[in-house]
Amino acid sequence: MEQTLKKELPSEKDQSKVKAKTAPKERLLHYVWKHKLFPLAPLSTTDGQRVEVIDPGLHNTNAGPDFFNAKVRVGDTLWVGNVELHTRASDWFLHRHDRDAAYDNVVLHVVEEDDGCRALTSAGDQPPQMVLPVPGSVKANYEELLRADSYPPCHRVIGLLPRLTQHSWMSALQTERLQQKTEAIDERARKAGGSWEQAFFTTLARNFGFGVNGDAFETWAAHLPLYAAAHHRDDPFQVEALFLGQAGLLNVAAVAEHRQLETASDGYFQRLSREYGYLAHKFSLTPMNGRLWRFLRLRPQNFPYIRISQLVTLYCSRRCSLSQMADCQTPDDARQMLSTEPTPYWHTHYTFGNESKASDKRLSRSSTDLLIINTVVPMLYAYGRHTAREQLCDRAFRFLEQLKAEDNSIVRMWRQCGLSVENAGDTQALIQLKRHYCDRKDCLRCRFGYEYLKVKK
Questions:
Q1: Around Cβ 308, how many Cβ atoms within 10 Å?
Q2: Which of 61, 292, 311, 342 has its CA 20 to 30 A from that of 151?
Q3: Which of 158, 155, 139, 185 is nearest to 31 (CA)?
Q4: pLDDT above 90 covers what percent of the chain?
Q5: pLDDT at 151
Q6: Strand pairing partners for 83?
Q7: Concatenated DSSP letters for 87-121?
Q8: Phi first, then psi: what are they for 58, rounded to 5°?
Q9: How far apart are CA 277 and CA 357, in angstroms?
Q10: Alpha-carbon torsion 333, 185, 211, 177, what sign?
Q11: Alpha-carbon gap, residue 419 to 417, rounded angstroms
């Protein structure tokens, strides 16, 4: 039978299609095994030996057997080793485990459907095989979770859960989100040759994109040599020429090509372009592609010109640096540090050449708080971890508790589901829940999904 099965193995391309199709069912089988949602009847192998699951083992989400170091008694023998699970018994050969020595120490093969195949290791052994049916109510609830498009079906149980259950999960999600942001900051520091000052500026710049232009701002910060800007920090005009030039927004040739007559004839644009030409030659600079910036459907206050000019003022004021960020004791300290407005030209302009009603265009309180949530808090946490200063990590969590809850579509959805949202820490947790669990249909790792799967139909 082994030879026949190998001859009928599908191509690599067909295998990937099959795996993608069976993955949700197999994940559910993992869930049932992990939480020991076994039928009341005694468990037994396909050849009639009684099975007792003492410890399901450690769930492995990487390559290799699905559960490590499980303890199972098969007949009169206690086995300690790995367990592999499949929707169908023949999936053992479909996934080519019979050719992989990593599966030679599997002590039990668990399947939902026995289609007549028996597992065979590369060493020629046949591990015991057991059929584990998924309870009907669990399967029905899981399928309902996967079908949901808007509100997750689990919203029906969320309001009934104890507050301790709700907030313990939200606390874990909050920490998980901070950890992910820390990894991104660590990577920026690594790319900057270990410069945490550059990593701080890049993180701040990214968040000045306020979502829509976040990627473009990060690309811009990577093209911006702060060592060059530091030479001209006392002259905001030169810094603005450097910042806008490196952003690809002072490209005279592109302006002429697109016949942007208002921009081409604007005196301030011409002065900035000439100054950038001098600085680019002096420091051997190459600008980024200006077409990466998005203007469509943006409010004028969010135009890259305005945000970059606000960063110019912030940079030249010398108020916003890594050390000053680390010295902020309260959100008010951080608000004062981040307080900024564009240079004078932009008080009466949103783009080059088109004059508008005068306004100082200061960052709003809500925008500043978003910068604290997405820049100051993760930087405090990441830098605290990097320097082993636990007080900075604690301060990051304290800031989230002290800041008001964000108001966006994700937060409003969860509030309507019955969750209490009290501060920015809660909203960060719920954003993490929506993007990394609900959107990915990863309900089996979610504690709310766990509670929903237990509901009896």
A1: 23
A2: 61
A3: 139
A4: 70
A5: 66
A6: 67, 108
A7: EETTHHHHTTGGG-GGGTTEEEEEEEE--S-----
A8: -95, 125
A9: 30
A10: negative
A11: 6
